Amino acid sequence: MQIQGYFDLKFEGVKDAFAELFDNPQERGAALCVQVAGETVIDIWAGVADKEGEQAWHSDTIVNLFSCTKPFAAVTIMQLVGEGKLDLDAPVTRYWPEFAAAGKSNITLRHLLCHQAGLPALHAMLPAEALYDWDAMTTALAAEQPWWSLGEGHGYAPITYGWLVGEVIRRVEGRGPGESIAARICEPLGLDFHVGLADTEFHRVAHVSRGKGNMGDAAAQRLLKVMMTDASAMSTRSFTNPPSIMTSTNKPEWRRMQQPAANGHGNARSLAGFYNALLDGRLLESELLGELTREHSKGEDKTLLTQTRFGLGCMLDQPDVANATYGMGRGAFGHPGAGGSIGFADPEHEVAFGFVVNNLGPFVLMDPRAQKLAVKLAESL
User: Where is the Beta-lactamase-related domain (predicted)?
Assistant: First the structure.
């Protein structure tokens, strides 16, 4: 496999590990970017971007990064907190009065950000087209009754997070959450990352498809079993209500909407650049970064049915949990996206890491491909 781009010779082992991913005939396209202490030491890509396998992955190829998007929304919230426009411990109803319905008046912004609010899914099934109707989704969530009571643990909100957090941003900023993320983060830093992609950029987007035959680890199999056997389970509904969630990735409507839980489009360079800017203080003052990255939720996740550990809108390292460690320092924080893409920072080693891929793996938290690269990186430092 022809590897394009740049790597510092000290990190040749990481480049070789990246090349080895393509020994799997199902692998399609991928990119990796690593910055150490603000310096780019790896920026490489390989493979194909289109469905037919005829178009090479280029330097400017972008791809849907799924939940890698969530920290961008969380940082936008934290900036608004720093400006005094939001309060993490104020009830959500202060900014969104309709949210008080069905006993939700005590839920705070902090609860939303660390997945404790009990709203990872909607009980009543919505039509497929509701996915693209911002008002329909936020109205449904405002009326929704939580699946559990405050204080009874946490459950990851794979997609509702985007409407919940995004609506608070929209109410305070008076613009779509994707526009706020662009104005506050992507444009100032020059990141090729978009929550709400312009049609003029569609030609650069890699086609996403699922790998076949790999059943994943025990956590993936546990979740799959529930989704196949219990249509009304909270875990199932969180990924399938509206029913179009899992099947929309390559659709123009999905690319266009501003859904800051799951539809960010970018590349490895944009993820590494984002985390580097968190490490060097350009996005948040240290006190706000500390709040973002300190442990808020830990333990058995009611949605994912595996152990998770969250800060505010970011997933924290669990060194002792095989499917939940970034493979670097214990203080690492970031977020994996469905199927294998990931962005994270390791403050201990001053590492900012971005890996993106368009052949989706079946894993619930960390994809072994990303972990393998991170472990190689740690060995090279």
Answer: 18-374
